[in-house]
Amino acid sequence: MRALLKASLYFAIAAVLTVVYALCHVVGLYLKSHYQGLTPLWPAAGIGLALLWCYGLRWWPVIVLGDILGSHYLGRSWAAGAADSLSQIVEALLAVGLLRSFSVDASFKRSRDVLLFVLLGCVPAALVGGVLGALGLYLNGLIPREAVLLQSGNWALGDAMGMLVVAPFIAHWRRLPFTSTHAFMEWTLYMLLILAAVAGISRLPDDVESSFYFLLLPLAVLAAARSGAAGASSAAALMALCVLTFNLNDAQDPFLAMMRIVFVGASAFTGYLVAAAFAERHAADAALGAEQDRALVTLQAIGEGVITTHADGKVSFMNSVAEKLTGWRSADAAGRSVEQVFPLSPAAGEQEAEHTVRHALMHGASSEVLSRRLMRDRKGVLRPVEGTITLARGRDGDVLGGVVVFRDVSEAEQLRERLVREATHDSLTGLRNRAAFDRHLRDLTTGSERRAQYALLYLDLDQFKLINDTRGHEIGDRLLVELTKRLRALVHKPDIIARLGGDEFGVLVIDANEQMVLLLAEELRRAVLDYRFKERELTFSVGVSLGVTFFSPGERSADVLSRADIACYIAKGGGRNAIHVYRSDDVSMLQHHSDLARVTQLETAMNEGRFKLFGQRIVRLDDAQRDRHFYEVLLRLYEDDKIVPPGVFLPAAARYGLASLIDHWVLDRSFKFLAGKSGHGIRLSINLDARTLDNPDFYRQVLEHKARHGVAAESVVFEVTENVALEHLTRGVTS
Question: Using an 8 Å Cβ cutoff, are 567 and 580 in contact?
Answer without folding.
Answer: yes
